[in-house]
Amino acid sequence: MSDSAGIRVRATNRLGRGVPAFLILLGGFLGCSGHSEAPGAGGPQVAGQSMGFLLGVNYPWLHYGHDFGDTAWGHDGVSSTQSKREVETDFEYLKTQGVQVVRWFVFADGRAAPEFDPAGNVTGFDEHFYQDFDAALAIAENSDIRLLPVFFDFQLTDKAKDSGGVQMGGRATMISDSAKRKTFLDNALIPLLQRYGRSEAIVAWDVINEPEGAMDIAGGRWVEDAVTPEAMKIFVREIVQCIHAHTSQKATVGSASRGMLTHWTNSGLDLYQFHYYDKMGGQYPLEYQCANLNLDKPCIVGEFPTKNAERAVTAYLDVILHNGYSGSLAWSLRGDDDSSDFKGVASEFVKWSASHEKEISK
After folding, report:
1. 3-state DSSP call for residue 202?
2. I need a surface site. Which of 110, 120, 202, 355 has the fewest CB within 10 A?
3. pLDDT 10s digits, 180-211
4. Which domain holds residue 250?
5. What are the C-alpha distances in Å from 242 to residues 27, 70, 106, 189, 231?
6. What is the pTM of this model?
7. Per-residue pLDDT tens digits for 215-237
8. How many structural domains are present in the chain?
């Protein structure tokens, strides 16, 4: 764990491996600047219209960075026998908790997908990638759960590390070099979006988790090879443009804190998102009206802790809902870190959801 500018950075074990989400999402979303600020007002409202409340959980992986695709370690992606069995069990459990949306990392630090040539250009996907993604979608659909896939993690730009022939990180030039960035868009992203761009099981695509950690900015640079903020913003904008051009789905970015949302206000996002952990509370308290952010689109709290937390899960959800935000996703079911214990709070999560059904389902 490290702290920078009051922002908590999760020290997750990256090799480590409820809740009716009454979902009226994205197609009818409007900006949060006009949300009702009154608790119990039937959920966030704009011009008399209620949008519902996105309620779910971060999975966020079975195996960090290789749930989708092959590595030199072998194939243990979602379509492999053992992994498929484990994911099916997890999603059936989430279904019993009423969970309807799950945030799931796809490429992470690039260790399994996409494929790169020796010069760092993206060439496409291996034979298992689409099999794994197909399996994930099928499992989600069978459990009546929708996905919020996250393309990358900020550790994509960390100094390259080799483990048994698998490169982890070291892909900063895919962001900063326009030619290499184009190979990702043309050879990986666009084919992926064209294949899954009409799937009703996908509510939105999350471009990158906590990109500020990979940016050379105050409070950022959590990795050695951070890129300029300008390069990251171009990277995000180009991916968002591809999402809009090739799908009927929406785009978001998992910003590390509420104070960093301003980096993404001109990126064409359909849904703003920030993450909240208790050490942020002194600088960016959770008790802050969404309306005061003056955003042009809705905003959700994409992560909040379920372990070693300063308040009960119901208290986080109350504050998030009553301050006009359009959803919240608990961290997490599978994350091996000191903020993750969804199973430990699931019973209270379910009770909260049931008791707020009228507010969050309209």
Report:
1. strand
2. 355
3. 999 999 999 999 999 999 999 999 999 999 99
4. 2-361
5. 18, 25, 17, 8, 17
6. 0.89
7. 999 999 999 999 999 999 999 99
8. 1
